[in-house]
Design brief:
This protein is an alpha/beta fold. It folds into 4 domains: 21-231, Growth Hormone, Chain: A (Up-down Bundle), CATH 1.20.1250; 255-498, Growth Hormone, Chain: A (Up-down Bundle), CATH 1.20.1250; 500-551, no CATH class; 561-856, 3-Layer(aba) Sandwich (Rossmann fold), CATH 3.40.50. It contains 29 helices and 14 strands. An 8-stranded mixed β-sheet has the order 7-6-5-8-9-11-10-13, sandwiched between helices. Strands 1-2-3-4 form a 4-stranded antiparallel β-sheet. The longest helix is centred in the middle third of the chain and has 58 residues, at 406-463.
Amino acid sequence: MPKRPSINNPEPVEAELVGVVTREPSTGSRAIFPWLLLLLAGSGCAALIYEIVWFQLLQLVIGSSAISLGLLLAAYMGGLCLGSLMLPKYVSSREHPLKVYAYLELGIGVFGLLALYGVPVVGRLYLAGAGEGVFGLVLRGLVAVVCLLPPTLLMGGSLPAISRWAGSSPEGVSWMGFLYSANIAGAVFGCLFAGFYLLRVYDLAVATYAAVAINVAVGVLGLVLVSRTPHSAEVGRVGSPAGDATGGARRDHLQNYGGARPTLVYLAIAVSGLTALGAEVVWTRLLSLLLGATTYTFSIILAVYLAGLWSGSTAGSFAARRMQNPRWGLALCQIGLAAAIGWTGYTLSHSLPYWPVDPWLSLDPTFNFELDIARCVWAIFPATLLWGASFPLALAAARSGNEADPARIAGEVYAANTAGSILGALAFSLFLIPAIGTQGSQQLLIVLSAVGALAGAASVVRAMQPRPISNMDPLRAAAVAVGIIAVAWGFTLVVQDVPWAVIAYGRRVAPILRAFNLYDQDHPTTVLYRGEGINSSLLIAERAGQRHFYVSGKAEASTAILDMRLERMMGHIPGLIHPHPRNVLTVGFGAGITAGSFVNYPDVDRLVICELEKQIPPASSQYFNKENYDVLHNPRTHVVYDDARHFIFTTREKFDVITTDPIHPWVKGTSTLYSKEYYELCKQHLNPGGVVAQWLPIYDSDPETVKTELATFFDVFPNGTIWSNFLRTRENPNGEGYDLVLLGFADSAPLINVDEMQQRLDTPGYAPVAASIREVGFNSAVEFLATYAGRAADLAPLTAGVTVNQDMNMRLQYIAGLGLNYAMEQKIYRDVLRYRKFPDNLLVGNGGRIDALRTLLAPVFQTPGR
């Protein structure tokens, strides 16, 4: 039996293990190192593009709720974890590392193409068995695993594969860190390339083809390099080679530390991964409040996050080669993270909300993106540097003096880090934020970083156990532990909740607060309710006698007359145009006012409300109970907590009325509720004679965005009509409007008889409906129908040549994200009215009412060209 290096036998001996030799790479191998960095960068770029594309594709199948996203994340990162563990075990070290790596990349490209064409097929299979409850969740998880596990297994094996080229010498382990850093650098580029160009200009298919092309290029280049780097799995000497630049001190260190299995190192890097992904969840939510939840914001946050990891991993790779004790370096990074997380928490609550940033000052998106990048770097970059440095230090700390296969080092460290990341992402997004809030979550992250620091410090003590320990060692260890805990506790004290105004006003918090302080100090705001749910943050406040409902930095409803008018119209326009609505679906609870409009209809016997955030209905019912007629507790009401797209996709129920009141189209992910495919789903779920109502905001928008929304809706509902919540005043006789209501029909557009509608409102059964519309300024059917603003046929010149928003291109969220600083609602509204003419084959009646309606709908603006 061979001797093993030990404290009593310091000289390295021949190993009887067949594996990668611990020698440093040859001069020829060194020459291709820059090419390997390029390969890893290309791999990271493709991986980020795939992640974005696959998640968007699969959200169309299993939904975009927090639970569905958690299942997708678990499947994706779980595959990475398993792949990193499986490759060293099942792929022989006799195989050329670059050849294995090339085949992995080519395989990922194949799966990328399969996903693009296969996910829709999986979606049809899923639809056949989709349901609610535990079975439905299991089925969603199965879809995520089937679609994501195969390619991510290959992705996870790529770093262990290439690690066999680097070898397990101190320099080789450092090179592993550089390769990992290059992979992250590619991911930064992939994030920006996909978010700002590929998906904005093209679609999911083109983005997939780009990623596949990168995989093919990486694979082919890898195979070309195979011939230039001969590989042999010969038996070699274990330990630091003769040419080790670090010299004898490093050899002594390896001999002293090599005998201990680095379990505590794995624990430390797992905790580091847990805090990194947990913090990303928390900080993405808070930063998206301040920056606006556009798709560009999420790309910027992720890019800055990855850039910090790249910078930190590069620095950590340099440090790993020079540190006598990388385990202490790993521990110091974790205690440094306690301070960095405290810094970010303090910045998000006490600094960034008060920066004098006014997004209205510039219509140039690039200028605002620069401000967003600066704020992200200021807040989160310090912590990401330390998380990035932790990984190469963990690689160096996990290296054993008798290690034969560097793939095992890389695989186990990467698996531990990824496993912790999965736990962090799921725990904080699904449980901890709703339970203890973002403040408590950040404080917990600081505590967990201290745990990671203790694990790193303990790994040093454990590795040195063969050395005689003095009586003072336990005292020193205790002092270190107490010091770490005390420092962490101190940093938790600086973390506070973000100001309530951030949840209310979001990206415009600074100019709005300044305006209130300067011009309206006599009407202070009273916060009535504040909550943080799984999907969003919400706030209900009262000011100047009006109650306002905010979700994640956006005003969603209020008791102001213009808002109440729209909210009631979203229910009453389809409710009164449909002759006898019985089965109604309302998408989005909000303040409950739109859904509550249907409570007053005597024919309605089932009212389904689809809401994503569970905290919203009870909170709104408490503070908007009068305005929404206590709809939540009405026996006809059934609330479904799911995203609307998934519910309509999977339900077999059909409705007389579907009214969709989603959040703003510039919010990331909302584009699917304004897409052609979504409208087709709605149309398929209408009973004969059914009506669809869709909210369309024209504020925080530009003409191109509104034209896209109109063109998409009218493509599915060619007989669609437009209605507006404009309000005529003495100062503005033509009316002012900030919102439109689009109306589509399952069949041809019905005749709307103003006399019959008035007779219906005059019956005792419809007295509550008449009272409901009277409260928002409609005293008769004539006044109610005077909100008509146009129809598809008349607006054809306005929407001609406009690209339709579809699931595969997500066009709307990209153009809407560029136009949300515009204040052009009046111009957009006037442009729509220019095409309005009285619809003789839509609005009918006899006598004075139809004449009065003609007068109210007389041309306000001359149509261009007439």
